[in-house]
Amino acid sequence: MNKRRSLAGVVADHTILAVLAILFLAPFAFIALTSVMSAAQAGTTFSWPTSWHVENYAAVFEKLDLVRYFGNSLMYSILATVFMLASSIPAAYALARIKFRGANLLFLLIVAMMLLPPQVTTVPLYVMWSKLHLTGSLWPLILPNLLGDAFSIFLLRQFMLTIPKDYTESAELDGCGPWSTMVRVIVPMAKPGIAAAAIFLFFHAWNDYYGALLYTSENERAWPISYALAQFRTSRAVDWNLTMAATILAMVPVVLIFFSAQKVFVQGVTLTGVKG
């Protein structure tokens, strides 16, 4: 009787997981199948491709300057991530390991910044970048990361709190200063948390449409792939097969990065503590 119940439970669990997997994968299957349809079939009710047109992927490169747009997205995502790590790691270390007056208040302000909608600061920031003659480029989206990212500081600070203080105390006894302790002790031990913060920001930059719309819409040469895809869909609304092919190509880099760093990413998120 118990075996029957356990078997029924296993079947029920796997059935639910299978249904959820199908619901999750269905949009990707729809995009992939549409990308290899003919233009005539892609514009009708969805069905299995009557003929396979892999050449749609080559056609996308002919109709859209994907190499340039991919390059812009890579520059934006990589530089933004590097700048964020260079500024957020020291800030998170100071909040997690260095005792100073007002540390808790400063941490609360950083948390409050996470709750601030970006639209609130859009107008003054745009005016500032316009006066610096940087609109029409990606630099207004890249340079602010030199001042840190609130979510990344929060995530890194919480992860660093999970590292036992014995390591930093031992480093201090060996004569290491705060900077040397951070670089030689904390950063190597915080690699999962750093990887998680880096992947979060990289994905955000790669998929950023609002920022690209605001600062690069007037200059096509500066468009990242996220904004270029939206413009391609607008200008070629009937070519859904090519639109889906371009979408698949835009998804490839982030999918590869996620699966190649999946283990350390999950570790970084799950090990992030909730200490105050």
* Structure class: mainly alpha
CATH topology of the largest domain: MetI-like fold
State the end-to-end distance. 49 Å
Helicity level: over 70%
Number of strand segments: 0
Overall pLDDT: 85
Write down the oligomeric state: single chain
Question: Which consecutive residue ranges, at least 5 long each, have pLDDT under 50?
Answer: none
CATH superfamily of the largest domain: MetI-like
Shape: globular
Number of domains: 2
CATH architecture level-2 label of the largest domain: Orthogonal Bundle
Question: Any overview of this molecule?
Answer:
- This protein has two domains: 2-57; 60-270, MetI-like (MetI-like fold, Orthogonal Bundle).
- With 276 residues, the protein is an all-alpha fold.
- Helix 4 (66-97) packs across helix 8 (150-161).
- The protein is 73% helix and 0% strand.
- It contains 15 helices and no strands.
- The mean pLDDT is 85.
- The longest helix is centred in the first third of the chain and has 34 residues, at 2-35.
- It has helices spanning 2-35, 39-42, 56-63, 66-97, 103-114, 122-131, 139-142, 150-161, 165-173, 178-189, 191-207, 210-216, 225-235, 240-260, 262-270.
- It starts with a helix and ends in a 6-residue tail after the last helix.
